[in-house]
## 1
Amino acid sequence: MSARLMGAVAFLAIVVVSCRGTPPQPAPAPMASAQAQATPAAASKDSVPTRYTDVQFMQGMIAHHAQALEMTALILARTSREDFRSLGHRIDISQKDEIAMMQRWLRAHGAEAPSLDAHTMHHDAAGQMMLMPGMLTHEELAQLEQSTGVEFERLFLRYMIRHHQGALAMVSDLLGTKGSAQDPLIFNYASDIDADQRAEIRRMQTLQRDIK
């Protein structure tokens, strides 16, 4: 074999070995999006689902007010105290007016406006009780209905104070939720609830001290 032919064979052998010995390189992975690269610690708190939107607050407050009306409806047949009747009358008038306002707001914003039917308002689609903060259970309502006189007065005040405190908690949650209560009507209404129900709590606490 000539020297030129031997050189050509050697060159081909080197090329074949080189091609077989180099494994194929994987294609580069596509660059992840900025959202996918973000760690949980770096995620914005604003992305966490909020507890109350304006609609949820108004719907929940209708249910909350409706139960207060159930409670005040018991007063006339269970106590003869005029201060209790005056308290119940104030709550009844103010909360009926507020319910009508909330229903109008919800309808104007294309949202469901719950009715005052307590039997449907206090249950979800599966029939489970839906209690907003401070609301009474069926058992507590039954206990209130079955009481009279001083026993009723004590229970009513204890439960209605708790009920009002629940409304204050709802207002606090709404105002503490980013993006909620930007509508001036919602903000002013929530502020009014806070002031009015704090004043009523003080009146009820005074009544508590008067009951022997």
## 2
Amino acid sequence: MLKGSCLCGAVTIAVAGDLEHDPQACHCRQCQKQTSSFYAGVNVRKSALTVRGEAHVRWFRSSVEVERGFCAVCGSTLFWRPDLPGYAWISIAMGLFDESTGRRMTKHEYVAERGDYYPDLSRLPDSGD
């Protein structure tokens, strides 16, 4: 079980079992506006996710088919979810996890839209930290 929380702890999450997917990064303009950089998240089955403090989760519809969840108390980015009938997945912001997930980012999306203040991260060397 993987556990995590927002910055203030008002919203906590638990994901049952291991992650089925690797995290990915989205550099689109909407993710830049939401996070001030890029969104790093991992898709998990909604049925594997438990959220406590749901009264503090607010949803913003950023497009016709997508909602973005954040903590109403501290503003932490929490979720990204398509509003599609029967869609079984939700993306959880990687920064929420309290411990290492053991997974590495394997995909970037909308790299051409990335902010001009950082290079293509896939070309940066690993510092080993």
